[in-house]
Design brief:
Blueprint (H helix, E strand, L loop, with lengths): L1 H39 L7 E3 L10 H11 L4 H12 L5 H4 L3 E3 L1 H12 L7 H8 L6 E4 L3 E2 L5 E11 L2 E12 L2 E12 L1
Parallel strand pairs: 1-2
Antiparallel strand pairs: 3-5, 4-5, 5-6, 6-7
């Protein structure tokens, strides 16, 4: 009986420690993928990155279906967890290295200026210049990973005004410990 309790306790301890390491690994994997994209992708060849994705709260069931289909996610709990992390994601200084990080409050100010633009009202351009991003800024979403954490969907965008910029949604795949674009799923120009 004593050995059974010892075995049960050891198994439980091992299970809990593996779960804790999984979340640490997910943070590490997210950091590496985002850093890799910001350092290597020509698409993000601008000097400033938004701390948040302004459209992160506009997710709907159709997008969840889209993501689960392309990443072949079968575990709905995993999918919901990934979307919760997606909504709360912020770019950190550790991720951007040589790019300027634009704080959430400033991005919200820009969104208000750009959203209410009328004829000959170009205050958003003054905002871009005064915030050191004359040619616009980049927006990158949190990667949404499959259950194996070897594939992710991520949204990348450049923003330079209400009808200026563009973006894409891409699948990244882990090959020999390096992330690479597997497929572009959507592309747009504003």
């Amino acid at each position: 009986m004593r050995y059974f309790i010892y075995y049960l306790f050891s198994s439980l301890l091992l299970f809990v420690s593996c779960k804790e390491n999984q979340s640490i690994n997910e943070d590490y994997i997210t950091l590496n993928l985002v850093k890799s994209i910001l350092e290597n992708e020509n698409f993000m060849n601008i000097n400033s990155i938004a701390e948040i994705d302004p459209s992160r709260n506009q997710l709907d069931e159709e997008y969840k279906t889209f993501v689960s289909r392309y990443l072949k996610i079968k575990d709905l709990i995993h999918l919901e967890k990934e979307f919760e992390l997606y909504k709360n994601f912020k770019i950190t200084p550790e991720m951007v290295n040589f790019k300027k990080l634009i704080a959430e409050e400033k991005i919200n100010d820009f969104t208000k200026l750009a959203g209410f633009t009328r004829d000959n009202d170009y205050k958003y351009i003054d905002w871009l210049i005064s915030n050191g991003c004359k040619y616009g800024f980049g927006v990158i979403s949190r990667p949404i990973f499959n259950e194996e954490y070897n594939m992710a969907i991520i949204r990348l965008e450049t923003v330079c005004g209400p009808l200026c910029g563009g973006g894409l949604i891409a699948i990244y795949k882990l090959h020999n410990e390096e992330w690479a674009v597997e497929k572009i799923l959507d592309r747009w120009v504003n």
